[in-house]
């Protein structure tokens, strides 16, 4: 009896190479880890690269081709998980036979996990499987996905979303985070963390983490008053960070400061402060044993109740639940 889990990665032409290579490496390194350290006799995952147009060599956006086994007609094994890489050249619609195959698989094998990476969400949405479900994609494509598929509850922030056996991830590298989440489902958090270490990832990110890093926002602008404010905010989270105080520090009126800040950072001062506090609190929950009240004070949330409100608003979870899952 075949005990390995067969993973099919559907590769459209002109997809990003990382949409394919990221998940492939996670599954490969997991199998190596299980064989070496857990003495798993059989290869835990067998990954199959399958083209959408039956070709063997699929060109990618970087110019490097991906060598596939062929098309879906050659699948003769039980499929545990399907991952749809970014849609690549399929800007209008995917091949009908691919959509029908995905739908049939979901209907006849409802436990099969079906996931999309980046713009692969458009292909998944075309099947109708995202209707009524929360979903995400690359932040640059969020509005297009929501406009084209109004029945899908598109969310811009999360790096990946799970809805039953249907998964969607955000842009490119987040396919690695999604795949690690699949590994954690199969083998537990400890194995997923060890694989993250093998891949030399900074951390294993939860799905509800935002696609937008406040650290990156500080690098977005060269306009000194806003750049200095962005940095100062993150170094003084436990202080009064009202617009009035920030504006005074920048020697600007509150109205002008808010306008310029939004223009340069793409976010209001108040929202940036909240996101910075959530990011800081999240790190402390992951890395320290501080109480919720202590973390709330350090991050400027006031107390545990204030911290809870921030987490529910931004991460759809509580600090206690977050710590239990990710610390």
From TrEMBL:
GO terms for molecular function: DNA-binding transcription factor activity; sequence-specific DNA binding. Keywords: DNA-binding, Transcription, Transcription regulation. The keyword Transferase does not apply. Residues 227-325 form the HTH araC/xylS-type domain. This is Transcriptional regulator GlxA family, contains an amidase domain and an AraC-type DNA-binding HTH domain.
């Amino acid at each position: 009896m075949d005990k390995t889990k067969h993973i099919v990665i559907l590769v459209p032409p002109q997809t990003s190479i990382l949409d394919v290579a990221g998940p492939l490496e996670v599954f490969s390194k997991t199998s190596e880890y299980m064989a070496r350290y857990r003495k798993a006799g059989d290869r835990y995952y067998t990954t199959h690269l399958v083209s959408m147009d039956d070709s063997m060599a699929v060109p990618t956006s970087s110019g490097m081709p991906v060598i596939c086994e062929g098309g879906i007609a050659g699948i003769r094994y039980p499929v545990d998980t399907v991952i749809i890489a970014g849609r690549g050249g399929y800007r209008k619609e995917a091949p009908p036979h691919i959509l029908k195959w995905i739908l049939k698989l979901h209907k006849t094998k409802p436990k099969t996990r079906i996931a999309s990476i980046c713009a692969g969400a458009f292909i998944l949405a075309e099947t109708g499987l995202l209707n009524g479900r929360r979903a995400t994609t690359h932040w640059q494509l969020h509005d297009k996905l929501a406009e084209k598929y109004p029945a899908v509850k598109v969310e811009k922030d999360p790096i990946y979303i799970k809805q039953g056996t249907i998964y969607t991830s955000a842009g490119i590298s987040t396919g690695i985070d999604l795949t690690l989440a699949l590994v954690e489902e199969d083998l537990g958090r400890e194995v997923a963390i060890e694989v993250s270490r093998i891949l030399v990832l900074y951390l294993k990110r939860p799905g509800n983490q935002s696609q937008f890093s406040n650290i990156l926002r500080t690098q977005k602008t060269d306009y000194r008053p806003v750049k200095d404010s962005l940095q100062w905010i993150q170094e003084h989270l436990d202080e009064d960070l009202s617009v009035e105080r920030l504006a005074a520090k920048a020697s600007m009126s509150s109205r002008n400061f808010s306008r310029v800040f939004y223009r340069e950072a793409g976010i209001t001062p108040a929202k940036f402060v909240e996101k910075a506090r959530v990011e800081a609190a999240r790190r402390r929950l992951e890395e320290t044993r501080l109480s919720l009240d202590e973390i709330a004070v350090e991050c400027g949330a006031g107390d545990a109740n204030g911290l809870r409100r921030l987490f529910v608003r931004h991460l759809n979870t509580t600090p206690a639940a977050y710590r239990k899952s990710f610390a």
